[in-house]
Amino acid sequence: TYVIAQPCVDVMDRACVEECPVDCIYEGGRSLYIHPDECVDCGACEPVCPVEAIFYEDDLPDEWVPYATDNADFFQKVLPGRDAPLGSPGGAMKIGPTGVDAPLVASQPPQGE
Ligand code: F3S
Ligand code: F3S
C-alpha cells in the first residue's frame, strides 16, 4: 500500500483524492489516510502531492515509518453514527470528511506555524 505521512498534517491539499482510481483516500480532521486494503498500488497519488507526503510503504523515510500503522489504525476507528470500521467495502467520497484522526496524527503539534 501507499501511505500518507507527516507532511499532510494540517495541509490537506487533496490533490491526491482526485487521482485515486479506487477512491481509497479518506479524509480525517488534520490529514488524509489511504486504506491499506483498498489501495491497488497504482501510484497515481504520489507525484501530485505538493508537499510530497505520499510514499510506497517500503520507501517511507525512517522517521515516518510509524505513519504506515497510523494510516491503518484510522480505519479501525468506529466513527460516531457508524456501526462498523471505515471502508472495505469503501468509497471515500460518500463518507466525506470525518473530523477524526489516528493517534499519531492527532498527537502532532499544529503544523505550518
Ligand atoms: Fe495530503 Fe498531499 Fe493528499 S497534502 S491530502 S497527501 S495531496
Ligand atoms: Fe489510490 Fe494512491 Fe493507492 S492513487 S490506489 S491510494 S497508490
From TrEMBL:
Its cofactor is [4Fe-4S] cluster; [3Fe-4S] cluster. The keyword Metal-binding applies. Residues 88-113 are annotated as: Disordered. Keywords: 3Fe-4S, 4Fe-4S, Electron transport, Iron, Iron-sulfur, Metal-binding, Repeat, Transport. The keyword Secreted does not apply. It holds the Pfam family Fer4. Ferredoxins are iron-sulfur proteins that transfer electrons in a wide variety of metabolic reactions. This is Ferredoxin. It comes from Gordonia phthalatica.
